[in-house]
Amino acid sequence: MRSTILFAFAASLALAGCEEMKRGAGPRAGSPPIEFSFRKSQIPTRGMVVGIKNASPSETLKGLTVEVRAPGEETTRSHVVEKEIKPRDSITVGWVELDGWKLKPGDEVSLTAAGYTEPKTATVPKP
Question: Which of 23, 49, 98, 121 is the 20 to 30 A CA-CA neighbour of 80?
Fold first, then answer.
């Protein structure tokens, strides 16, 4: 009886591993399922804040990096997101996370995520 239970447990782990390998065979083409939103910072004179929502109903996003570039400039500011974003959950990134960089209209926001080949980008709109 004990060996039958152990065998069944081992078989279920092996099958789960096979499914994981199929899904994790490599990065997916395209950008992560992200929806951007923008608002003014709650602190006056601190620019805009970008809302980043995981639009997937089932996938947790990991390994996220937000990069910001001002129009006509080569320098960028980036923020590595320390936590995962669960399905339908969201985070915000503003001047605190970007080490004092104030998001302003025209800035390009780019988000990369582990498992995707392309970043998702948006331009900060006028408030």
Answer: 23
What residues form DSSP beta bridges with 48?
Answer: 40, 103
Interval 7-19 mean pLDDT: 42
Would 70 be classed as within a structural domain?
yes
Task: Give pLDDT, residue 94.
Answer: 95
C-alpha distances in Å from residue 114, one per residue of 4, 7, 46, 70, 103: 38, 34, 30, 24, 24
Residue % of the chain over a pLDDT of 90: 73
In 3D space, the residue among 34, 22, 100 whose CA is nearest the CA of residue 65 turns out to be 34
87 and 33 in contact (C-beta within 8 Å)? Answer: no
Please report which helix (H) or strand (E) contains residue 91, including its range: strand 90-93
CATH of the domain at 108: 2.60.40.10
Structural domain of 115: 30-123
